[in-house]
From TrEMBL:
<dbReference type="Pfam" id="PF01844">
    <property type="entry name" value="HNH"/>
</dbReference>
<keyword id="KW-0540">Nuclease</keyword>
<dbReference type="GO" id="GO:0008270">
    <property type="term" value="F:zinc ion binding"/>
</dbReference>
<keyword id="KW-0255">Endonuclease</keyword>
<protein>
    <submittedName>
        <fullName>HNH endonuclease</fullName>
    </submittedName>
</protein>
<feature type="region of interest" description="Disordered">
    <location>
        <begin position="84"/>
        <end position="120"/>
    </location>
</feature>
<feature type="domain" description="HNH">
    <location>
        <begin position="53"/>
        <end position="94"/>
    </location>
</feature>
<feature type="compositionally biased region" description="Basic and acidic residues">
    <location>
        <begin position="86"/>
        <end position="98"/>
    </location>
</feature>
<dbReference type="InterPro" id="IPR002711">
    <property type="entry name" value="HNH"/>
</dbReference>
<dbReference type="InterPro" id="IPR003615">
    <property type="entry name" value="HNH_nuc"/>
</dbReference>
<keyword id="KW-0378">Hydrolase</keyword>
<dbReference type="GO" id="GO:0003676">
    <property type="term" value="F:nucleic acid binding"/>
</dbReference>
<dbReference type="GO" id="GO:0004519">
    <property type="term" value="F:endonuclease activity"/>
</dbReference>
Length: 120
């Protein structure tokens, strides 16, 4: 069972669909990873900044920075959300699954994922 199907019921919660997700997208309407590379991507581009030819991949993902692993606190924390394009979301997810933790760092430069080796 993948994490997505295991936790699918969380994404059906109205708190997620009606509040958290749209509110986050209103605050952060561009892919955060593309922006770091200097690409303004509202979901219509690939991670390389080219026109997204696949219409089914023209959207933005609201992703959890620290994997919530079913933890409602992390799942519903607005500060734990980031906007990603599908390309960056896939890459992020693959790296996460390979390592088991996020390498995202907070404002102080310290890794924020409790599963990161620096925090264990
Ligand atoms: Zn991106």
């Amino acid at each position: 069972m993948t994490a997505r199907s295991e936790y699918h019921h969380l994404y059906n919660k109205s708190a997620w669909r009606r509040q958290l997700r749209p509110q986050h997208l209103a605050r952060e309407p561009l892919c955060r990873a593309c922006l770091r590379r200097g690409i303004i991507n509202d979901g219509s581009l690939t991670a390389a900044g080219e026109d997204q030819a696949n219409a089914r991949r023209r959207f933005l993902v609201v992703d959890h920075v620290i994997p919530h692993r079913g933890d409602l606190g992390l799942f519903l924390d607005p500060a734990n959300l980031q906007t990603l394009c599908p390309d960056d979301h896939d890459q992020n997810k693959q790296r996460l699954e390979a390592r088991g933790y996020s390498q995202e760092r907070g404002a102080d430069g310290w890794p924020i994922d409790p599963q990161h080796p620096a925090n264990r």
